[in-house]
Design brief:
Protein name: AAA family ATPase
Pfam families: AAA_15 (PF13175)
Distance between the termini: 31 Å
Strand content: 15-25%
InterPro entries: AAA_GajA/Old/RecF-like (IPR041685), Bact_Antivir_Def_Nuclease (IPR051396), P-loop_NTPase (IPR027417)
Radius of gyration: 32 Å
Structural class: alpha/beta
CATH topology of one domain: Rossmann fold
Helix content: 25-40%
Organism: Nesterenkonia sedimenti
Oligomer: single chain
Number of strands: 19
Length: 618
């Protein structure tokens, strides 16, 4: 089973929204775009223990905090999910609530007049629609919420007034028992440090206990009996015995106690299942210490890895039953290599994984067609997989890390090679130093992308446009005209600059003052890696000969091995904005002006001001 579509109405910062999910889905978008809201909505509609929390929802879960309309009538939160890829067991269990679903058009076909003719098409499958509804209950002065099967809908004229006014308007309830069949697990970042390794209902340990088979009821009964019969009893501790005897003697003056020493006693807990769930803790000893301590006393990274270990146990216990696994920002406390390992396991072992992240180490584990871009138009959210028709799989595989960084960026600047990357970065650093109104290209959220050669630059424009990015391009002058498709692609750039020179070295050297060239050569000639085939003796090289020599030196030390050092040193000799190479400087200033005119969109995310996503005790 997996989630295919999610519709959200009137929930937190989203008045209306729709997100389409893939088999595995990476949700990406700017800060506060709505990623956490989507995850919370999924838990409300599918989390088997979520509705046990009280209150289920509160004032701040309603868009703008408005839970009553202008006439004083309750407003409803409505979250609908469409579940597909059902197992045989799930189809048998939910058969009366299934509908035929067109997985290509992403619509139920039974609304169309010729639905019977298309019911057996290859892309038409069985799907389970479910819905969460929440609202304010005036009579109880409280907030209520529950989940229901969203098919079949009852005939309203066949319901009495009470049923029509009920929360689900006569729908059949989608209970926690039903949800457990779906196998939904949500690893929220806030939950990791306090609740995941406890035995509270819905925790990971509780999930493992429940999936492990029969015997949980006997376990609790035996544990409570063992605590009650502890030998020696807690109350036999000498200091506690003194207190117990004093209490029993004093209480006996006012209360008719039972006879014997057991009329007042100390025990290790309240001797109830719920209290044991609260107080039982997993102890762990990690190197270099061999001393066991409660899991919460471990380092944050260790706690996260403990949580991940439990997730692998759950996946194994599920066996053939697929797990719908939602994970928020695993990079918060995990080092890069662990982020990669965790994400790779989740994608390979879980039936469906839905992950939010700002880490390229996480993002690179997802294929391009599994990336869902979230966007906002006011208070309307939309999320759909990127258009992969413009992304060649081989190109994505070889440029995976660059693509991952570009996905997270606000805009992408496509350049033809490593030396150009260094030159642009160096000029941007200089502009930041020379101008108060300039934002460094990194701080502006622009990702530099190495296309590999000048002919390849135009081909990346449609790719990044499909990601909803502003995209800019720069390259050297070509020796021959572009092909027709490249000409069309160039039109897609928000800014495109082609050099009047055939090499970046000529641009750098010909557009700076003479003193910059001499200072550059004076510095690099002292380096151990200076190219001895191009000797430089300051007294013997005239100003007229400096440009040709500087070009030779830059070309001799071009590429990843030397490019950063030599190109960066060259730009570093510029002492004013006017000294910088005009071609690169003017392009960066144009990009800066465009991005300043369109600031990044900041919107309400998971909570309205004053609301909390923490669970009790967190």
């Amino acid at each position: 089973m997996r989630i295919r579509r999610l519709e959200i109405e009137n929930f937190r910062g989203i008045t209306s929204g729709e997100v389409v999910f893939q088999e595995h889905t990476l949700l990406v978008g700017g800060n506060n775009i709505g990623k956490s809201t989507v995850c919370e909505a999924l838990e409300l509609v599918l989390g088997p223990e979520r509705l046990y929390r009280r209150p289920v929802i509160d004032e701040h879960d309603f868009s703008h905090g408005r839970y009553l309309d202008s006439d004083g009538q309750p407003q409803e939160i409505c979250i609908r999910a469409v579940l597909t890829d059902l197992s045989d067991e799930q189809r048998r269990r939910f058969m009366q609530h299934l509908r035929r679903w067109d997985d290509k058009s992403l619509e139920f076909i039974d609304t169309e007049p010729d639905s019977l003719q298309s019911a057996d098409n290859d892309h038409v499958i069985w799907a389970l629609p479910v819905v969460f509804i929440g609202r304010y209950d005036k009579e109880e002065d409280d907030f209520v919420g529950d989940t229901f099967f969203d098919h079949p809908l009852p005939e309203l004229d066949e319901l009495d007034d009470e049923d029509r006014a009920s929360l689900g308007s006569g729908r059949a309830r989608f209970s926690s028992k039903h949800k457990r069949v779906c196998g939904f697990i949500f690893l929220r970042a806030l939950r990791t440090g306090s609740r995941a390794l406890s035995l509270q209902r819905g925790s990971l340990l509780d999930t493992i206990l429940r999936l492990g088979g029969e015997g949980a009821a006997e376990m609790w009964r035996n544990a409570l009996g063992a605590l009650q019969d502890l030998d020696p009893a807690i109350g036999e501790i000498e200091q506690l015995k003194v207190i117990r005897d004093n209490i029993r003697a004093r209480l006996g003056q006012f209360v008719n106690l039972a006879p014997g020493e057991d009329s007042a006693a100390f025990f290790a807990s309240d001797l109830t299942r719920e209290h044991l769930r609260e107080v039982v803790r997993l102890f762990v000893a990690t190197q270099p210490s061999s001393h066991s301590v409660p899991f919460a006393k471990q380092g944050t990274g260790s706690v996260n890895m403990l949580v991940f270990a439990l997730l692998t146990i759950i996946a194994d216990l599920k066996g053939d039953q697929s797990v719908i696994f939602v994970m928020e920002e695993p990079e918060i406390a995990l080092p890069p290599h662990t982020q990669r390992r965790v994400t790779k396991y989740v994608v390979q072992q879980m039936g469906q994984s839905i992950v939010t992240s700002h880490s390229p180490y996480v993002i690179e584990q997802f294929a391009p067609d599994n990336v869902v871009i979230l966007s906002r138009d006011g208070e309307t959210l939309s999320g759909a997989p990127i258009d992969t028709t413009s992304v060649k799989p081989k190109t994505y595989r070889t440029q995976r890390r660059q693509f991952s960084e570009a996905i997270l960026s606000r805009a992408v600047f496509v350049l033809e090679g490593q030396t150009e990357m260094v030159a642009v970065h160096a000029v941007s650093s200089a502009l930041e130093q020379f101008r108060n109104d300039y934002s460094h290209i990194d701080l502006a959220g622009v990702s530099l992308f190495n296309a590999g050669n000048d002919r390849a630059v135009p081909g990346f424009a449609p790719m990044f446009k499909a990601l909803g990015k502003r995209v800019y391009g720069m390259r050297d002058k070509l020796n021959a005209p572009d092909a027709a498709d490249a000409i069309e692609n160039i039109k897609l750039f928000d800014g495109f600059w082609e050099s009047p020179e055939t090499g970046i070295e000529e641009i750098l050297v010909k557009e700076v003052p003479t003193y910059v060239l001499r200072n550059f050569l004076d510095e690099v000639v002292q380096r151990d890696d200076y190219p001895t085939s191009h000797p430089y003796v300051a007294e013997k090289v005239t100003d007229h000969d400096l440009p040709a020599l500087a070009i030779k030196v830059l070309k001799a030390r071009k590429g990843d091995a030397f490019g950063f050092g030599y190109t960066d040193i060259f730009v570093g000799q510029c002492q004013t904005e006017a000294d910088l190479p005009d071609f690169i400087r003017d392009a960066l200033l144009a990009i800066n002006e465009q991005l300043q005119d369109e600031p990044e969109l900041i919107l309400d995310d998971a909570v309205t001001p004053g609301a909390s996503t923490a669970e009790p005790g967190e």
